[in-house]
Structures are given as C-alpha cells and as structure tokens.
Amino acid sequence: MKSKFTLFAATTMVCAALTVNAQTPARQKAMKHAVASLKASFLQHNKQTRKALKAADNQNMKWTAGATYSYEDGQWTKTVDNKQEYNALGLPTVTYYINATASKMASRYTYKYDTQDPTLLVEAMFAVGNYGQDNWENTRVEDKRDLTRNKDNQIEEVVVYDDSSSPWSLKKDMSDQLYYNADGSLDKIIETIHDEEDGDITITYTDFVWDRTNKKYYYAIDEDKYYEGENRIKSMKGSVTQSGMTIKAEVNVNYDEQGGYTAALKGMYMGMTVSTYTIKKTYTDANGSYVLTEHDQSMGEEDEYDKTTCTYDEHKNLVAEEEKSGNDENYMNDDGKQKIDYEYDEAGLVKTAVYYQFDYESNTYEPYKKLEYTEYKDVTAGISSAVAAPAAADTRVYSIDGTYMGNAVEGLNHGIYVVKQGNKTVKIAR
Fold first, then answer.
1. CA-CA distance, 306 to 325, in Å (whole number)?
2. What is the pLDDT of residue 403?
3. Non-local CB neighbours of 245 within 8 Å, separated by 6+ positions
4. Residues 245/30, Cβ–Cβ less than 8 Å
5. Which of the 8 DSSP states describes residue 383?
6. What is the reported pTM?
7. What is the DSSP letter of 44?
8. Which position among 66, 348, 398, 399 has the lowest Cβ density within 10 Å, counted as fewest Cβ atoms?
9. Percent of the chain having pLDDT more than 90?
C-alpha cells in the first residue's frame, strides 16, 4: 500500500473478492481494471513531492546550478551537473542534466505554463544534445495538456496527452469535464480515461463539500492540493464505470487545529459496503514533521496497515523517513529507512545534501547520493507585490496574454498580471 493515499485510493480494494468469483473472466478483467484505474487517477501525486528538497520554499531564492554525486568504494564521484532556470513565480522553465565528462552530453527538459494561470503546467518537452551548443536532437513532447475555459474564465475541460506509445507520439490519455457551483467552487469532475485495449473508463467525482477553498482547479485530486492549505475537502462522492459495472465511494474528512486530518472512505458495490479505508496525518512539530497512518479493511482480505514517519529540520527540509507495514498495527515490519544530512550557508540555503539508506544487515546507514548546490538566484527580482496595486477607478488588470481581468487583483488566481493605473504600468505576481 505504499504511497497509497489520496482519498479514493482505497477503492481499489472495493469488492474485489466479492465480485471476482461471480463474474465471467472478461468481466473479472473489467472489474480489476476499473478499480485499478480509479486508484491511478487519484494517485497522480508523487510521494517524492513531500520528500523533495525545500531549501527555497517560501523564499525568492532558487537553486540554479549544482551537481549529483554517487557513492562507491568509499568515495564520491560526480555523475551529473545540474542547471535549472525559473519563471517569476519560482517554477522551473528549463532543467539540464549534464554528463560530468568532457563531452558535456546532456538531456534537457523545457516546461510551458498556462498563459492565464502560470502555475499550471501545460507542456513538458525532452531533448538531448551538448550543453552550451544549439544542437538539441530527439526533441519530443512527453506531457501535454489542452485547457478550455468557459465564459467566466473557469477551466471547463482538460485533455491530457502522454507519449507512452512507441514510436514516440502523443496520444490522448485522459480528459476531464469540470462543473462549478454558483460561488465558483468546484462541484463535479467527470474524468474519462482513454484505453484502446479495454475500453474507456469514466470516473465521476461529485457532491464536493468544502471546509475551505480558493476555487482553483488542480490536475490531480491529491492530498497536497485538496486536503491541505487553501483547499480542504470536507466530503465528496465518487464512482467509476467500465463495461456497465459501477463502483461507488463516499469520503468524509475531519481536520485538526495543526492542519492534520483523519479521512474515512467507504466503498460500495451493488449497495453493499465492502471496503473501508482510513488515514490519519498528524503533525508533530512546527517544522512540518508528521506521522501518516493508513488502515485498509476489505471484504475477503486481511487488514493492511501502513505507517510513515517523516522528520523535518528547522529549515523545513526532510531529514529522516521511516516506513512500516503489516497486518497488525502493533506488529508492523520495517519497509525502509533513510536520512538526509544538510550543510547550510549563512543565509540558510542548502550547500550539500547527503542521502543515506539504512542497511538492515549491517545495522547502519549507508550513503548513496549527494546533491550539491553551487548557485542561487532571486527569481522574483523586478516583480512587484500585489499589495502595490490597490483597486481604483482608473486601475485595469490584464493577464499576461492581454485578457482584461477587472480593476483589482484581489480574488484572481495566483499568477502574473499587468496592472495599468493611470500612466503607470507594472507587472505583479500574486
């Protein structure tokens, strides 16, 4: 069950034992594929995001140059030089992974963002070549999203393409239809996963009840975007349909004063509750350290428990992680431990991060990777604060593509805007 949680992830276990015995082989396959697809849809977030280096989070300073080292035979060897460029919001626009040899062979990833909401990635492109020379080859789009907006400038459709086919070519992978309440909050998502082999799968998320929301749509219904921070789901319902078979789920979430939560999912098939899944995330200090526990109960299956403990330092960087799992919450097996040692400069920026994996045979932590950060840059230099643009009769706000947005930035999505006030024009990051 590793990396399992988004609220509907437990639906993968719904009625598996109950229905498989009662269905034909073809229907068994459809059933398994349907629940697997529902899980995949809600697992688009990567567990590594919460392990990621957060040296410049909530700051203007972002690393722009560094290196990766591997550890072998008692010594460190540089394998890759890393370089990264950003936009004014601190989001990466180009990443280079440069072979640490004289050849300077490199892979390059370039990222494009939506013009109206620059926080939404719409394209990622890959190429290989020699760093410092304009000879990039094998260029291909690896990830692409087409966004359609309604008359209120809300995203009403998202079409996702990927390059999983061979030879490299983009194919439609998934599409979302979005529906909103009168107050602008998200109410329903109808998601279609396109599967040429087994047929399309329709997943519906509906009846959203919000604890709080910024009315912003994100690509994945995951814990980082919809259960913490500005968006917190209080309850919702979901269903997945394929080949005439429908699995339903209900979700309820309670939050504590520290920002943690307890979520309960009930899975149903043919009106019968056949699976329950609970998860509890408890923050243990002001640095963001937490304990995440998961409990899966499915008809015909043994109970499954998972526990992840993450510890962060005063810079809010991950310094230790431990994972356990088992069929009894009091007797869980060790699934792995790692720790990270940081060296900081006087400004509190990371100079090096050394990664260690716990070796259960030697009962010691063994180093395996080192990241080095040699250059940082203030990526928001020259961008004004939104506080500098009060609403006024002669104030006009435009998106960066020239669309008129009103006479105030208050209430707009996060992004970069052009504000005209009299004869003065400024760019503002909100």
1. 4
2. 62
3. 27, 30, 31, 34
4. yes
5. P
6. 0.74
7. -
8. 348
9. 33
